[in-house]
Amino acid sequence: MTAAALNPPELQELEAFEQANAPPGLLRRYARGRVRALGFRLSVILIGVAMGGVFIGWPFAVAMFMTMVLAELAENRLLLGVLRNPPAQQDFDRRSRQVAIASFIQALGIGGSIAVLGLQGDALRFSAWVFLLGAAFNSLVGARYHLPSHKARIAVYIGTTVVILGHQIVVDGVGNATALIEAFCILLLFYMMMRLFQHFFRREEKMVESERRLLRQKLEKSTINAELAESRLALAKREKEARRLALVAEHATDSVILSDAFSTILWVNSQFTRITGYSLEEVVGRPVGQMLNGPDTSAETLARVKAACDEKKPFKDHILNYRKDGSTVWMEISITPVFNAQGQFQMFISVERDATENMEKQHQLEKALAAAKQADTAKSEFLARMSHELRTPVNAIVGGVDLLAETDLSSSQRDILSILRQGSGRMSRVVEGLLGYCEVTKETFVPRKEKVDITELLRKTVDDWHIAANAKGITGPVLHLPGAVDLVVWSDPFLLSQMFDSLIDNAVKFTKQGVVDVIVTARRQSGMLALKIEVKDTGIGISAENQRHIFKRFTQVEGDFSRKFDGIGMGLCLAATCARKLSGTIDAASVEGQGSCFTVSLNLKAVAGVEVPGKEYLGEDTVRTMLVAEDNRTNRLLIGRYFKDLPLHLEFAEDGVQAVEKYAEMKPDVMLMDISMPNKDGLQATKEIRLFEKEQQIPACPILALTANTFESDRQNCLAAGMDAFLAKPVRKKSLIEAINNAIGGRQGGDVDVV
């Protein structure tokens, strides 16, 4: 809309009219009229002064002239100020009073001179009445513009009339007929003048109102004309746009369908005909679905299309349509409802594009993705099976080495034992890394929430790496803990252990000399523990280029066959995955040749107080008999060696059936249960034992799962079957004893402790 249409001349004219007839505008008009009539009033004053000079005397005439002229000039100056500086709305009352006072002073000058003239006798009294009536009439003329000034003048002129008439009555006597007639005539003239003024006043008000009405009608007519002009322009513009849109729709490369609220076709473009084979005449008046849908069209997609159309909402998706010859075509459809200016529904516009090629590519990509996912799953399953199969021999090797270390050995035998311990430790870590990666990368993996003492967990991890570090001549790993801060939290011990072990493994592996430091800082706030673990080394460092790849799986900085460092390239990837699962972050800072620093930041829920560490020995008063269900002979021998020096009656069962039978016979104080056993697995055996305890009404025996099946699902199955703890092979003697003590303590205290 143009500026002229927004603010037409008629509107400006009406606004100017209203401003002119508003009180501030009327005051300005009053001032302008008085200033312009100053010359006329002065000429009348001169006539009166001349008469006074001739008939009364010139000294009186000069005094009368000075009085009236000074009064006129004083008023005129104030009115000029009004014209030069028009009063604002908030200042109007004050300026109006000033003008009324000036009018009163001016009227005093005129009235006083007229009164003096009227007191000089009968001849001059008539002249006084003429001047007085003329002054009153002049005041009436301006009354509409500033009524307070008119009232002030009339008050003065009435007073002048009273003075003259009163003097005449006093001089001539109360009963003088001439004086009474003259008084009556003067009052009659004043009355007639007032009536005449009222008539003219009302007439002028009607004229003002009539002019206002005419201006408003003129504005309304102008507005209507402007709206009509705009409507014509808009209509012409819409017609032009409609012609363009029709041209575009007709020659568009996409199919265009116009349909009503019931999906009945109103119009289609030529591209619709080229794609489907249906002409415009064949489809108009028929439902869209009846023409284009077929047996293989997705019922779910059709239901969503119907729901969107019923609710008059836009819709976009892919749908399988049928051509006239029966062949199918995938279409990308976009349905848009059209509403008028009043919000009433008009029609649907459907734009459809041939998407057959894209859908075929998408199907191929989905197949490729499914195949890749299947291959990745197969690889993960293979790694999991391999690590599981390795756990049993690794358990035997690690346990055997630990037992061998408790015997009397020569110096050379201890050197050989150190080599075996280093190799078995490395093999154990590889198996743990493989299984850990397979576990945490599962889509179904959910972190556990258990009480974890970060201090104890880090100490155990650091202790496990001292032998490997010392063998390389490295100092450490050195653990730096914060003072006076309890690091007991609710978290997943498996994820924390895997993450810490992977980071320290990486530091020791890539450090030839120097030191490996593990620095822990912590801060408690609002029940949370902000934990930061820095693993620093003085190793080979990582270039800026390679830092982008170090957290990818199966990746090492040196990936060729001549690499100088061992490992399968999963450590940092596993650490990063664990950090993400714990809603934390991991960052790397490194300078090639100077070492690296990996920083893990976690925000974990704190637990008040520090957990009491478990005992490293079995209490003779609580554990006198133990039943071990284990089908592997090597593992049975190993566990037997673990407890051979203790006053403990130890029995073995080689499968699940024997486990249930021997439990019923001996009712042991504690039981170790393997999961994968012939004839009856450990889960079923545990369930039968728990049922037997319930039937016999005997206390429940602590049962600990000791298995190579270490996935979270295996742990959950064991706990659901009624076991008290879950231990993964390989397990060391110290960890096994601590887990047994915790399980027994949990049973005695009424709670189940999960390891």
Using the CA coordinates, give the radius of gyration.
Answer: 55 Å
Major sheet description = 7 strands, mixed
Helical stretch tally? 23
Percent of residues in β-strands? 15-25%
Average the pLDDT over all residues and give the rounded result.
Answer: 80
Shape by Cα distribution: elongated
Structural class: alpha/beta
Helix content: 55-70%
Number of strands: 17
Number of self-contained structural domains: 5
Enumerate the spans where pLDDT stays under 50 for 5 or more consecutive residues. Answer: 554-568, 610-615, 749-755
The end-to-end distance, rounded to whole angstroms, is 78 Å
How is this structure best described in words?
The protein is of the alpha/beta class and 755 residues long. It folds into five domains: 3-219, no CATH class; 252-354, PAS domain (Beta-Lactamase); 357-444, Helix Hairpins (Orthogonal Bundle); 446-606, Heat Shock Protein 90; 625-749, Response regulator (Rossmann fold, 3-Layer(aba) Sandwich), CATH 3.40.50.2300. It is built from 23 helices and 17 strands. A hairpin with a 5-residue loop joins β4 and β5 (345-354). The longest helix is centred in the first third of the chain and has 75 residues, at 177-251. The model is unreliable at 554-568, 610-615 and 749-755 (pLDDT under 50).
